[in-house]
């Protein structure tokens, strides 16, 4: 007996699958878009590479927002430079009578200040001309880059320290204290241990890393075992490390016997990082270690099992614990690794060319600046390295700007703060410059389909 023909709606007739329905709808949508979108000549309806580049250039993507944040910071800095100069400010009292005086004096002051900032950080055309005509050596040409890299090296380490902890869900405010303990142990190993060259440097660097690891382990274990907040712990440990350094310097056997002020014995030459461009330029091998550390952190986060666990705990500790990841162990390891990085940054301050002995201010503010560097680099390793390079350039250029233009060095700190403020508030930058929404999805689709 044969079955009757299936009627419409009968269960014997299979309806169209969801995939077929979606494909049909997608085809109808594409045909509708093709019919309504005018085709550009020669591109078959698809935008050209140049068109896509221009469309995405003035959009709210990361690069554009960061670049415009720098521009805004420079504009506000220019206003502060004008306001801080009484002679230029006096020309604004009669601006309605002779506006050219105020405009010209303001432009001269700001342009000279920023020109000296560039010359001190990147390139000085006068030094290059002097090298060509024989009035100065090649060291003067490379001096700006040397100074920039010298200031950059420790900031890379402390920035990576903060960024690594942040990726694991912890806010490491203790990079300053970890760098302080790192610089203490590095210096002690540098002038107390009689070791041969090479081995002495290695031991001193490892001692700095060990000091940072110890100071990072304490808040890590407190967070893991007792639930103590890492921000409170690291802030308190910063104070302890600072006062411990101040006390230690003046102890017998540590203080320089030929000095009455608070300064330690100098680090032996065998424990100092070698200079890369000769004795007249300060850049040293610490910048190479900084690049290596950046690559190591990037590999750890993106290619290793531990890095996956770290990111999982940072994203959702409860879900990571359910998946079998030891949150306690991960917290401790995060802070230990962060401490190692900060300790290496501290050791750069006494084993490099910045200083050769312990003083109360030997670490400067590299730990706190590392927080700004990490935020500016969006807590990504190579982004942190570039942000540290920018901050190093501002510091190096600021020294020349102060010497040649009479602009206060504190203005550099203001510029750093303004850059971070604008980058931390992308909505403000988008509103000021009327940026369009980022069209990354369209760009990726075009890349996938071909131009």
Shape: globular
* Helix amount: 55-70%
Low-confidence stretches: 6-16, 32-44, 440-451
Question: What is the arithmetic mean of pLDDT?
Answer: 85
Spell out the helices and strands N to C. HHHHHHHHHHHHHHHHHHH
Radius of gyration from the CA trace? Answer: 29 Å
Strand content: under 5%
Structural class: mainly alpha
Give the end-to-end Cα distance, rounded to a whole number of Å: 60 Å
Biggest β-sheet description: none
Number of helices: 19
Features of this protein?
451 residues, mainly alpha, disordered C terminus
Task: Give an account of the 3D structure.
This protein is mostly helical and 451 residues long. The protein has a domain of 230 residues. Helices cover 70% and strands 0% of the residues. The protein contains 19 helices and no strands. Helix 8 runs parallel beside helix 10 and helix 15 crosses helix 16. The longest helix is centred in the middle third of the chain and has 30 residues. It is globular and about 70 Å long.
In short:
This protein is mainly α and 451 residues long. It has helices at 18-36, 49-57, 62-84, 86-91, 99-121, 125-133, 138-167, 175-192, 199-226, 230-249, 286-303, 305-315, 317-322, 327-351, 366-376, 381-405, 410-424, 426-433, 440-449. It has a domain at 155-384.
Please give the structural blueprint.
Blueprint: H1 18-36, H2 49-57, H3 62-84, H4 86-91, H5 99-121, H6 125-133, H7 138-167, H8 175-192, H9 199-226, H10 230-249, H11 286-303, H12 305-315, H13 317-322, H14 327-351, H15 366-376, H16 381-405, H17 410-424, H18 426-433, H19 440-449
